[in-house]
Write a structure and sequence with these properties.
Blueprint: H1 5-12, E1 15-22, E2 25-32, E3 35-42, H2 51-64, E4 71-76, H3 94-99, H4 104-114, E5 120-124, E6 127-129, H5 133-138, E7 141-145, E8 149-151, H6 155-162, H7 168-171, H8 174-181, E9 186-188, H9 191-203, H10 233-240, E10 247-248, E11 257-264, E12 267-274, H11 285-301, E13 305-311, H12 318-323, H13 325-338, E14 343-352, H14 355-358, E15 368-371, E16 376-378, H15 382-388, H16 392-405, H17 408-413, E17 419-420, H18 426-436
Parallel strand pairs: 3-4, 4-5, 5-7, 6-8, 7-9, 12-13, 13-14, 14-15, 14-16, 15-17
Antiparallel strand pairs: 1-2, 2-3, 10-11, 11-12
Length: 437
Amino acid sequence: MKLTAKKRVEKLLDDIEFIKEIHGHIQAKGKVDGKLTYVLARDSYMPIYDLVGDFVSSVEFMESIEKEPGVFVLMYDLMSDRKDPKKSVFPPHPTHFLLDKKGVGRWYNIMARYSKSLPLIALVFDKQGASSTFPIAMSDVVIMHENAGMSIGREDVVKRILGKDESYDELGSAKMHAKVSGSVDFVCKTEEEMLDTAYRFIGYLSDKSNYSYSKSCDIKRFIPDNPMYVLDMDGLIGEIVDDNSFFEIKKDYAKEIITGFARFKGKSVGIIANRSAHKAGLLFVESCKKAKGFVELCDKYGLPFVFLADSCGFMVGSEVEQKGIIKAGAELFESIANSKVEKLSVAVRRDYTAGVYAMGGGHVADARFVALPSAVITIYSEGVGSMLADDDEKKRRFDEMMKAAKSPEKLAKEGYIDAVVDYKDLRDEIVEFLINR
């Protein structure tokens, strides 16, 4: 069921200070789970009487948020007069919106500035194009209805300019952006699910006094002895966090790396982990970008984050080199090193090559670096190392390296890592890290 913009706002906000209806837009201020929240919503049910005046009013509302900063939620819907697919691609008053001091450029300016300071959430209820797409992408999180989407050019525009027939599924659908471009974080089946997702996301901006934990931290069962077997990282995370508290973000994009919020004794934290069940947990350009964005998100919100490492490192070959794997990895290192929040890196099993740095270890950042007894921290895996050690001297040196790598206790004794943590104590280690930060 499609709700009006006002009904959407009322469902999201707990306490409403005001709701203003200005032609085709709703402006509102209230609280979500105790956090001050502003909402600007477009209503597809309401006709636009004064498009210029309405846009100026929306820009002024956005500017006013600086006086008392809070969470900013934008709800995007398609205006009623733009739903006809045969509607002209030329918007009304094009010069005004392109060049006016309170036109689209000013809207972009505000969103760009707020992207560095305020939590920005975009809820997309219908297909968006052209000028609407960029502010959506500037948001911290994009929650999109499965029937919505976004693209700079419509199918007919692409056809006329490029002479190509492209379906909307491949051009701008919610599914495509969630899986391929990475521009959408959540795809929801209903509007109620979208609003619930936004509410839950905002909730992680604050710690909670109440929590439950009914598990035993029995994580050894998720870690196979054979490094060639898949480690169940999803199960491990679920075992150590507060009950039902893990909130995965971008779960359909670059699945080889996991990003999401969680709670430990009610305290909010970001988690970045390798998923060996997908592409062996290797790091690709997409996974580096996903991790980098999440590191910067946690840093912006002041949330500490925990790395759970199980990766052979970076993928090699011409395909990833041409895509820019070196630059993507370097930018990830920069984000980790420059982040100001507290960080904990846990070598769960495989922690190889520069993947150590991608997962916050090896002093790439001012992070506590610990290992489980199962951890192997080294340059090459046994399989790769045996292929590269092509004479007796190389084999001898490689065997010595692997002997040391397989002993986290020795690495701790020599000061390379801070501690070896028993499997049953990992949750306590993370809780202590959060309490003492």
